[in-house]
């Protein structure tokens, strides 16, 4: 029986992927085998020594201490693309809210509750509606920073709306490049994107390199009247610089899923309570993907969509499987294989892959492996974690 600690509300459709005869699921456990979470901020001390894996039902893993998990041999999974459509749809709403007086118009109509004469009301609205006039998106330029799962869907949608699309992504994967419409004009740097766009939308992860990326210097490139949308992460944008740019007329509007106190109450800001992925569909998709990946790792040692471990899947063969995490340095695999050979254990199949500072091995063997042998492997210098599956 594996114990799964859930630290947020996880869709039942995902939890159903972890059958009750194999899994106990609860929001409190002292020694869980794995953690399943969404935006809960996890500290290294919250991760019990028993934890073998962490799965984030969502895209961003900045709430998980990934480097610490890597050092401890714990793979961290996410669910790439599973909530991208939900974010895309909200960004399209953001674009229309940012181009027309929709919120202001709605707020105005709601002040007129005392008017009982329908004809008078209609007359007043016809007179006042000019205050809420906007501009069309068609023909305007959208700059997309980060052209991954969300950025590429937004590029398609914006082109369908008749917008011109420019994009910037210095780390674009080959798969993401294939998904991108050819009409997207790729920018060589952020300054070029900021100087061309009427609307700029951010869809990149928060990393050391992207924290505070949108700062005063970058915003000084904006076309006057530009509208900035942040549905990525709060930390990517320097809020003080955004407020200065709004007050200087460099930015016309800031629309964000990550409110901070100084932004509340401003007319030139639209704030949403981190609801980019808050749809039934996205919550189901993320939970199903995260749970499936966790299940395959706990039961088979296979790794799909990990942010810190190599991708590795091996069909089961032999009597037992060893899953070994070690530092990515020479000779460790040789030492493991020698221990098995000395014990007359035949290797039926195996796969070894590395990613940055760690290596991961799945070794299928022809006979059972004793606890003493596992302890010998675990004691090797450079071996971080050994599981007998
Ligand atoms: N508001 C929400 O609820 C919500 C929902 C989902 C995702 N997100 C955020 O959006 C981010 C993107 O999600 P995704 O699913 O598109 O992820 P993704 O991994 O598919 O795409 C991210 C893209 O950003 C690119 N990138 C990395 N560094 C960059 C840089 N310095 N400049 C420009 N691009 C850079 C990557 O190469 C990648 O193509 C997530 O990391 C998460 O923080 C927010
Ligand atoms: O779980 C959520 O609601 C938000 C998820 C989102 O921020 C993500 O990074 O995928």
UniProtKB/TrEMBL annotation:
It catalyses: (2R)-3-phosphoglycerate + NAD(+) = 3-phosphooxypyruvate + NADH + H(+); (R)-2-hydroxyglutarate + NAD(+) = 2-oxoglutarate + NADH + H(+). The chain crosses the membrane at residues 137-159. Residues 321-389 form the ACT domain. Keywords: Membrane, NAD, Oxidoreductase, Transmembrane, Transmembrane helix. It holds the Pfam family 2-Hacid_dh_C. InterPro entries: ACT-like_dom_sf, ACT_dom, D-isomer_2_OHA_DH_cat_dom, D-isomer_DH_CS1, D-isomer_DH_NAD-bd, NAD(P)-bd_dom_sf. It is an enzyme of class 1 (oxidoreductase). The keyword Coiled coil does not apply. Pathway: Amino-acid biosynthesis; L-serine biosynthesis; L-serine from 3-phospho-D-glycerate: step 1/3. PROSITE patterns: ACT, D_2_HYDROXYACID_DH_1. Catalyzes the reversible oxidation of 3-phospho-D-glycerate to 3-phosphonooxypyruvate, the first step of the phosphorylated L-serine biosynthesis pathway. Also catalyzes the reversible oxidation of 2-hydroxyglutarate to 2-oxoglutarate. Belongs to the D-isomer specific 2-hydroxyacid dehydrogenase family. PANTHER family: FORMATE DEHYDROGENASE 1 (PTHR42938), HYDROXYPYRUVATE REDUCTASE (PTHR42938:SF47). This is D-3-phosphoglycerate dehydrogenase.
